[in-house]
């Protein structure tokens, strides 16, 4: 038996979009269950995201701390952002986010992992990249606004982040998944065996 997620789409008898926001919306589908009953499922429709675990030569991860209003906390996170343009190459989006949020560029990019953040209530798919060979980006710093104007920056060792995750002190999903995936990759076939940065992503198809 191969443990692998598989595409499947159950019949939808009716669909509605009762709310449309700036970046996301809410959809209501009437879905036919295996026994023939029809149930209503509400979920957030999301364009998808990218995140970057940027690892420097001292084995530290580049972090930002940002206020997140829904959970009423300032969370330590890795740089991340929306796939604002349909079909956008996720690598290009990740490079843009690393520049905008940290004014950093990277020489080596790999796919660390792909996740659905909340598949029971949202269709958001996130591709988390590993970026190495870091240096300061060229040109002027990106002018931030809103929550990003209050961001803090830090570089923290992988060991300290693992400790914080397991102690329940760090909660951002991309940070948690990214750091633990990094450790797992190291104990497995190594970081150079990770998928290339342009690896296919069926959840959010893109053009190279």
Please provide a written account of the structure.
With 208 residues, the protein is α+β, with helices and mostly antiparallel strands. Helix content is 18%, strand content 39%. The protein has three helices and eleven strands. The protein has helices at residues 90-102, 158-166, 173-187, and strands at residues 12-20, 25-32, 38-45, 49-54, 60-68, 73-77, 80-82, 104-116, 125-136, 152-157, 195-196. The strands form three sheets. A five-stranded mixed β-sheet has the order 7-4-9-8-11. Helix 2 packs across helix 3 (173-187). The mean pLDDT is 94.
How do the strands and helices of this protein lay out in sequence?
Layout (H helix, E strand, L loop, with lengths): L11 E9 L4 E8 L5 E8 L3 E6 L5 E9 L4 E5 L2 E3 L7 H13 L1 E13 L8 E12 L15 E6 H9 L6 H15 L7 E2 L12
Parallel strand pairs: 4-9
Antiparallel strand pairs: 1-2, 2-3, 4-7, 5-6, 5-10, 8-9, 8-11
Helix pairs in contact: 2-3
What tags apply to this protein structure?
208 residues, alpha+beta, three-stranded antiparallel beta sheet, 39% strand
Shape: globular
* Largest sheet report: 5 strands, mixed
How confident is the prediction overall: mean pLDDT?
A: 94
Q: Taking Cα atoms only, what radius of gyration do you get, to the nearest Å?
A: 19 Å
User: How many strand units?
Assistant: 11
State the end-to-end CA separation. Answer: 33 Å
Helix content range: 10-25%
Approximately how much beta-strand content do the residues carry?
35-45%
Count of alpha and pi helical runs = 3
- Which H/E pattern describes the elements? EEEEEEEHEEEHHE
pLDDT below 50 for ≥5 consecutive residues: which ranges? Answer: none
Strand order of the largest sheet: 7-4-9-8-11
Pfam families: NUDIX (PF00293)
Protein name: NUDIX hydrolase
GO molecular function, one term: hydrolase activity
Keywords: Hydrolase
